[in-house]
Design brief:
- The protein has 376 residues and is of the alpha+beta class.
- Helix content is 20%, strand content 19%.
- The protein has a three-stranded mixed beta sheet with strand order 4-7-5, with helices on one face. The chain has a three-stranded mixed beta sheet with strand order 9-12-10, with no helix packed on it.
- A hairpin with a 4-residue loop joins β13 and β14 (327-334).
- It is elongated, with a radius of gyration of 49 Å.
- The N and C termini lie far apart (164 Å).
- Residues 1-18 and 21-42 have low confidence and may be disordered.
């Protein structure tokens, strides 16, 4: 059934009868000269939701509504927002906020005392972490590190740690401060002397220096040139690479380089591998190995063939008694430190031993048939 409202107008508008069965009637101004409500002019209007039809469409898809009208996907966020904003600061408003806090994803915090968990803020900057803590009714307070204590593996302003630690349970509202330790901002981060790459030239290296680091080149003399890198290559820096410096002042960085006329880089020399001692050719000698004294050489060849150029470095422990501690401990002697040198010395000893034994036996054999004595 339609509703009607009165319209203000002139006296000439009078004379229209009010329809019978009217639900609503708003009386017009009496100054119009129309003193009878039955003679006021009326106009029909329709409420926005009057006689609206909702058609039903059966569907087996749970993601599709069975009705042509469905609530928006963010209805829960809108509801939480309305509950938080309406009557804020009143008893009813606090109750609404508490209800909104139970809506998943609302980010509304209950005004009544309750327990929250300190978030991690890992990888966040100070501003983002501050907002996260305040949404939980925690009270963040920043502690900014000095340049000398800054974490070089983290970005400027990035959170380093929280106190209380992430995961701690806290009853809110609370007056306890949550201390957020962060890196300094970009201007407060330390100046760090970069590490030159192997063979990096001076012109390439200085492009890696941050503003505030002023390079000073120093070419080394001929006797100090590094043959493993080419001309203009960076050798070392002063201060050393990795040194952090105060960003509030400028610093000079001395860069030592090979001179421009240095020879091209030469390959790094490595000692050639020493092959195993092969005495097999001696076994083919036509001299009978069963005849003395020539059989001695065969015996020496067989024995030395089993010698290798590699060995196992000795290691042994000696008991060591401490009168102070009244205990006995082992003092370890490990000769493996000399292993690189022994890889060269062993084969040389084998060769020298072979010739020494051969010479000794040869001299002894020749002495068996020596000349007559002076008494003969």
């Amino acid at each position: 059934m339609a509703n009607y409202k009165g319209l203000e107008g002139t006296a000439g508008d009078c004379g229209n009868d009010v329809p019978g069965g009217m639900d609503t009637f708003v009386v017009g101004s009496a100054s119009l000269g129309c003193h009878s409500e039955a003679n006021h002019k009326v106009e029909p209007f329709r409420y926005s939701m009057s006689n609206r039809e909702f058609s039903y469409h059966p569907s087996d898809d749970p993601g599709v509504s069975n009705y042509s009208y469905s609530a928006p996907s963010n209805w829960s966020e809108n509801l939480a927002k309305e509950l938080k904003e309406k009557g804020e600061g009143t008893v009813a408003g606090r109750l609404g906020q508490h209800i909104a806090s139970k809506i998943e994803g609302s980010k509304v915090v209950s005004p009544y005392p309750h327990e929250v968990t300190v978030p991690s803020c890992s990888g966040e900057a100070w501003i983002g972490c501050k907002e996260d803590l305040e949404e939980l009714q925690l009270k963040p307070e920043r502690k900014e590190l000095d340049w000398s204590d800054a974490h070089l593996d983290l970005a400027p302003d990035e959170v380093v740690e929280l106190d209380p630690a992430p995961g701690t349970k806290i009853i809110v509202p609370t007056e306890t401060k949550t201390i957020v330790t962060t890196n300094p901002d970009e201007g407060g981060m330390p100046l760090v002397v970069p590490d030159p790459a192997e063979g990096e030239t001076y012109s390439d290296y200085i492009t890696k220096l941050a503003p505030g680091l002023n390079p000073e080149r120093h070419n080394v003399g001929e006797g100090f040139t590094d043959p493993h890198v080419g001309p203009n290559s960076v050798l070392r820096t002063h201060p050393d690479p990795g040194t952090r410096l105060d960003p509030s002042i400028e610093h000079d960085v001395e860069v030592e380089t090979n001179p421009p006329d240095a020879p091209p880089a030469a390959g790094v020399w490595t000692a050639p591998s020493i092959p195993a001692l092969d005495l097999s050719p001696l076994s083919g000698v036509s001299i009978g190995c069963n005849a003395f004294p020539f059989g001695v050489f065969c015996w020496v060849a067989d024995g030395l063939t089993n010698w290798g150029s590699e060995g196992e470095c000795p290691s042994f422990d000696l008991p060591f008694t401490s009168e102070i501690r009244d205990s006995t401990a082992d003092l370890t002697f490990d000769t493996c430190t000399f292993e690189p040198a022994m890889n060269i010395i062993r084969p040389m000893l084998v060769i020298l031993s072979f010739f020494g034994v051969a010479w000794l036996l040869s001299a002894s054999a020749m002495g068996l048939g020596g000349g007559a004595s002076a008494d003969d």
